[in-house]
Each structure stands twice: as C-alpha cells, then as structure tokens.
Design brief:
With 113 residues, this protein is α+β, with helices and mostly antiparallel strands. The protein has a single domain, classed as 2-Layer Sandwich (Alpha-Beta Plaits), CATH 3.30.70. Strands 1, 2, 3, 4 and 5 form a five-stranded antiparallel sheet that branches. β3 and β4 form a beta hairpin. It starts with 6 loop residues before the first strand and ends in a 5-residue tail after the last strand.
C-alpha cells in the first residue's frame, strides 16, 4: 500500500468511559509496536455525544499511524472482510477491539466516503 490516507471513524458504544480507555490502550500499543511513538496526533478520540443510552464519537487515525499498523499486520488485514482497503482495515480493527474486550463498534464515517 503506497497511498494510505488518514481515517475518520464513527465510534459507537453504550459504555464510553470503559470502551474509550480500552480502545486508547489498544491504539497506544499499536503506536508503540509500530515505532511511531514520536509525539501526539497519531490518533484522537473525540468527545462523545450521548443519545438514547448510546455514545457517538469520532475516531481519527493519521495516515502514518494506519501505515505503521498495516505494516505490522499486513496478512491479517489483507485477509479481513471487505473489498477496499478501508473496509478490510476497519473490519480487522473491530475484531482487534472485540478480542481485547472493547465493546465499541467502529465504522467508516460518512464524511470519509
């Protein structure tokens, strides 16, 4: 993958406090393992909006962050469900979140489509 853009994702959960902490820990691990540990700004989870017991937030992943995560997990991401790279990446990331006990659902934000 030579051209990987930044990602804007919808982060939806019923327990924002717990799930945001788990998600940020997972993303921090990826950042550390990928060697892109320099500074802030590789990912950002926005302040949520609550509605009907659900919390809706935006999750931003920088292009550099996505690239380094992809390089560490190329085979797993390539074998994930989806036709386009973005779909495969988000499917894989959702699986990683679930595997590590994060109850949030993520999907590609409409602004990115």
């Amino acid at each position: 993958m030579s051209l990987i853009d930044a990602f804007l994702l919808d982060f939806v959960t019923v327990d924002f406090d717990q799930d945001s902490k788990v998600a940020e820990r997972i993303l921090q691990e990826f950042q550390t393992n990928g060697g892109s540990n320099q500074g802030e700004g590789n990912f950002l989870l926005d302040t949520p909006v609550a509605s009907a017991g659900w919390y809706f937030a935006k999750l931003f992943l920088s292009a550099q962050f996505v690239r380094s995560v992809y390089e560490l997990n190329t085979d797993q991401i390539a074998n994930s469900k989806g036709k386009k790279f973005e779909e495969k990446f988000v499917t894989w990331l959702n699986t990683e979140f679930k595997r590590k006990k994060c109850g949030a659902h993520i999907k590609i934000a409409s602004e990115m489509k």
